[in-house]
């Protein structure tokens, strides 16, 4: 029921917290179209036909480099906000919640069931409007199993994020990081091949 002193125009959809719906009509349509496509023509294509996954993501606006490997069981929201540089790997069951942009540098690996979440709410505002802070992951980064990368996180080149770690800020390059909250543990020393 709308309060008598409510000054909103009639017919404005809400997000459940008193703010106008955070998605434009065109974006709601794209999200619905992607969801239908994902569950019918994307997820069930086997991994050895990975070229199809790259093409499909590009059709929906993602920037996908060459040699990218995406497991079909990865859950992807809003692919038009994805930037995947050459030779990235997105493992089984990874969740890419790309309400804001998510970018991965070359040769970065996101292991199984990790969750990259580029969306949040402004909890200081009683109506909790949607926020879409971006996530930036450098080159040669390894995000280990079941790690959580939160909105606005930045991970430097060649960093390693340990299994089940929680990243909510910035991590430096060339470091092995772990924990909740995730922090640098030791320098990543690369062997010469």
Concise synopsis of the structure shown:
This protein is α/β, with parallel strands linked by helices. Helices cover 15% and strands 26% of the residues. The protein is built from 2 helices and 20 strands.
Structural summary, described in words:
With about 190 residues, the chain is of the alpha/beta class. It has one domain: UDP N-Acetylglucosamine Acyltransferase, domain 1. It has helices at about 25-40, 50-60, and strands at about 65, 70, 75, 80-85, 90, 95, 100-105, 110, 115, 120, 130, 135, 140-145, 150, 155, 160, 165, 170, 175-180, 185. The strands form four sheets. The chain has a seven-stranded mixed sheet with strand order 2-5-8-13-16-19-20. A six-stranded parallel sheet has the order 1-4-7-12-15-18, with helices on one face. Strands 3-6-9-14-17 form a five-stranded parallel sheet. The longest helix has 18 residues, at about 25-40. The protein is globular. It starts with about 25 loop residues before the first helix and ends in a 6-residue tail after the last strand.
List keywords for this structure.
alpha/beta, UDP N-Acetylglucosamine Acyltransferase, domain 1, 26% strand, 193 residues
